[in-house]
Amino acid sequence: MDRDTIGDLADSTPFGGDDADYASRPSKAKTVTERAFVVTQGKHRFYSVVLPSDLLAQTCAVEARAENPIDGFQRLLDERRAKSIARYIDAGFGTVPGAVVLSAQARAHLTFDKEAGALTFRKDPRAFLIIDGQHRVFGFKLAKSSVSVPVVIYNRLTRAQECRLFMDINTKQRPVPNELLLDIRRLSEVETETEALLHNVFDLFNTRKDSALAGLLSASERKKGMISRVTFNAALRSIKAAFVGAPAEEVYPVLNAYLRACRHGLGLHAIDENIANPALFKALMLLFTNVAERVADRHGGKYTVGNFEEVLIPFFRRLKKSDLPRAGMTHIVLHEHYSKALSAGFNLKQWLFA
């Protein structure tokens, strides 16, 4: 899209079809005038304006491919996501600083007074096509409160240009990593009790010198051959019932002893560092409760490395190469296999008279 293609931003040019017919007829629709700026970025120009969120909800439309398979290019609306935005606004947290990107349609009758720096358009339910921000706009529509929203408005775009702009926005932006979001939740003081526990346990494994996972954790991003905070949390959530009410300082030594025993068992196959494999790590965590119960029964709750090894080493010795994680194997499949293998080696008489 170059300057010649976009044309003069002073007013809009009616498109063909129904919009052209609509735009040529007199309208009783009210007009809205807001202060705006013309922004130039390379070969692109657009308006930058701040609009009330309830006004956006009344003047914006989206065409989903399911509704308009020929011309539509937007994604289907996720109502749950829109409702969560509405609740967020109504709860009073209400700051959504990201700009909503719109394309003015012919029926908007968009005009810009250069001297006054004022943008005027019709208050029509299809005045603007949403290029980016449909969930925010529909969230605004569901919300009871109204907030000021930064808006970018392109004018005189063809449908092809709107599609290219949509693709540019949705392919060149990178979402915030989930690992970073977990850190942000802590900084913003909105962690749940479970999230706080998992965060603290991870930090202990990441900083303690005796950690079974020393050098194998990545706190803020995903790295090959390392356990991310997201993977760690997902694994521990599966056994969180075992630590109800326990602080991180009590959870850490028990899990650390268990994981050290696991690494010793994996070492029998010369793959102790494979514990960082996400599927294997999650499978071993799912196995923890079963193993811990046997340690508790045999040793009165003394969760030492040696006591965990008493249960785990025979299990690891029985494992074959085919029992170890392979590409495409899920942690659920691994756990089911390991659970059967652990039970197969359990001898009631040996346990009773040990």
UniProtKB/TrEMBL annotation:
InterPro entries: DGQHR-contain_dom, DNA_S_mod_DndB. CDD domains: DGQHR_domain. Residues 1-27 are annotated as: Disordered. This is DGQHR domain-containing protein. It comes from Methylocystis parvus.
